[in-house]
Amino acid sequence: MSGKQAVFAVLAVVITFLAASAAAQEEKNELTGVVGRIFISDQGIQGATYFNPFVRSGKGLTFEVNYARRLLMTPIFGVSGEVPAVFNLDEDLNSGSDVVPKDYKQIFVTPAVRVNLFPYTAVSPWLSFGGGFAHFSENKDLLYYGTNPGSSTTSGAIQGGAGLDVRLWHRFSIRGELRDFWSGTPDFPLANTGKTRQHNYFVGGGVVWHF
Description:
By secondary structure, the chain is mostly beta strands. 11% of the residues lie in helices and 57% in strands.
């Protein structure tokens, strides 16, 4: 490559970077849709003497809608305010006795601060931390038969997450993420686990629209 060609190549790279930076600066808002699963560890039932003395949770299909607004941008990092709203509408349950409902629904809404590294580049890892509320709505029927004596509950929730955004085309990126919603527990009067808090691990992927 001649000296003139090298100069042109460097100029092309610089112009491309500046154009991407200008476009990114204009895109102050994000709307994200994510699909994934929530994972909850099994909980032992205190005093149970029957087979399978645990509250076992399924891996509920979960949806996230997230709005974010960029607050601060530098070439090294960017700071955004975001509001992830996560919906797990069918968290199946299992146990060795008729002590838990068939299933329940989860909703998490946790406003947060997100920090992206290298926000002007095509690949940007990020961390998120925030807090809000969790709501659990239980099935009225127990697992095998009878009426569930538990009730719906709402508690505070703390959210911590990490992920990776990859710019695909113009105003669209793909996102992979892991979030932990540390919340209160569902109301299981017949299955005392001794727990007042639980981790709800959400793993998912989706699309980000920058505008």
